[in-house]
Amino acid sequence: MPTRVIKAGDVYRIEGPAKVIVKRGHIYATGVIYGEGQSFTVLRARRLVIKAISDSEVEFILGPGALLEKAMPGEEVIEEWERRISNLNPRGAILIIGMTDVGKSTMAAMLGNKALLHGYKVAIIDADVGQNDLGPPTTVSIARLTKYITHLRQLIAEKSIFLQSTSLERIWPRAVEQIAKAVEYAKNKWSVDTIIINTDGWVLDEEAVVFKRRLIEKIKPTHIVAIQVEKELMPILDGYTNTTILPPPPHVRTRSREDRKIHREMGYGRYIFPPVEIAFSLDKTPLCNLPLFKGIELSEDLRRMLMRATGVSITRAFQVGDRVYALVHGTTWAVKRVGRFQVICLPQEFEKGLLVGLEDREGFLVSLGVLKKIYYDKRKAIVYTSSDVEKRIGEVKCIRLGFVRLDENFNEIERVTNLLKAEEIHNISQI
Q: 3-state DSSP call for residue 37?
């Protein structure tokens, strides 16, 4: 596309893929003013709003499917966002909250850029496990910001923590601890001045409010930036004064549930590809969250007694304290009480296709993987994972089972909530 002359104050929406080159004048985007000879990128299927600070000549290089349109006066919130956060000192920890598709990722990029403008060392934490822009789906991921960006996806996660699920419902207490762990890591290991924490869009029900308030109490952010449609965030923000409340962009690109699922599936493939099959000894590299091999395998006589007591056909059983993990025929998940023992019944091939996190000794993710099979007699697990893991195999200290089942093409086929129940029983026993 030829160079276009745009007047001072004009606002444009761009949907990528596109590249914007400033030939003359000054253009504002995501908290930064770009001058003559400078350029920035709009990623595919992402939307960016820009504003001409002065009369400018700009070259727009638009890729397949890209869009460029001029916004009507007052139609976008770019000026209001800039005005409201311009006096905000970005030093410290800034937490961003809001529903899905209200521009939280754009705000994270904007605040990160402004911190760089102040000369601060900056880390960004993406805690949106369903639509993570820095790292794999199901993770909390961290990256350092060293140059201006227009989208978080332009960064690559340097550290990730596997949270096992694409939703934080039911697992939010662990999420609070792991997001806090990421904040402490950025502070202590990287010695950053600014930490921007982007969160998921779960905000509306009572449990979501408890989660977000518990997170605020745990990480004690210097400031909270809330992007609010009406008054849906007030139960979360009640009592906090260090807040800035912003309206959402009126033309933000919304994604359907299916779009989000496809985006995640592409993410699984990206972080597991090219896949290799690795056999892990479960004695040397145990399951983090299901202690099948930490106890005693029941003898055939004891197993038969357990079968009579439970009325379930059991192929193998492992006793760990007052719990028994029993592998059963069929697809039945159940928890039964036999005397003083809790019997957790797991379908014989429950592990097939489970998303797993290969973790290092500090609990950070080495790589995602897909569990193919557990060979109980050999005490081995076969995992499909990235070929890069072969070079880092010594870093993997345990395998954490996730609550998402994938097929061979990395498509999500099931959320394994029954395994979550088994993990909750294990966690309670550790208290």
A: coil
CA dist 130 and 147 (Å) reads 26
Asked if 178 and 216 sit in the same domain, the reply is yes
What is the distance between the alpha carbons of residues 321 and 341, in angstroms, rounded to a whole number?
8
HSE on the CB side for 81, CA within 13 Å? 30
Closest-CA residue to 11 (of 44, 48, 50, 41): 50
The token duo for 36 is: 């003559």
Strand 27-29 relative to strand 47-52: parallel, antiparallel, unpaired?
antiparallel
Rounded average pLDDT per 10-residue block, the chain, 431 residues: 87 95 97 97 92 97 94 91 92 97 95 97 97 94 98 96 95 97 98 98 96 98 97 97 94 68 77 91 94 90 93 93 91 89 93 97 97 95 94 96 92 90 69 43
Q: Which of 254, 287, 305 is the last residue of a domain?
A: 254
- My answer on whether 215 and 343 are in the same domain is no
> Tokens 């694409």 belong to which residue?
166
Where in the sequence is the domain holding 48, given as residue range(s)? 3-70
Whole-number Å distance between alpha carbons of 306 and 331: 18
For residue 256, with 0-12 CB atoms within 10 Å meaning exposed, 13-18 middle and 19 or more buried, which class applies? exposed
Global model pTM greater than 0.70: yes
* 271 and 409 both lie in a single domain: yes
134 and 180 part of one domain: yes
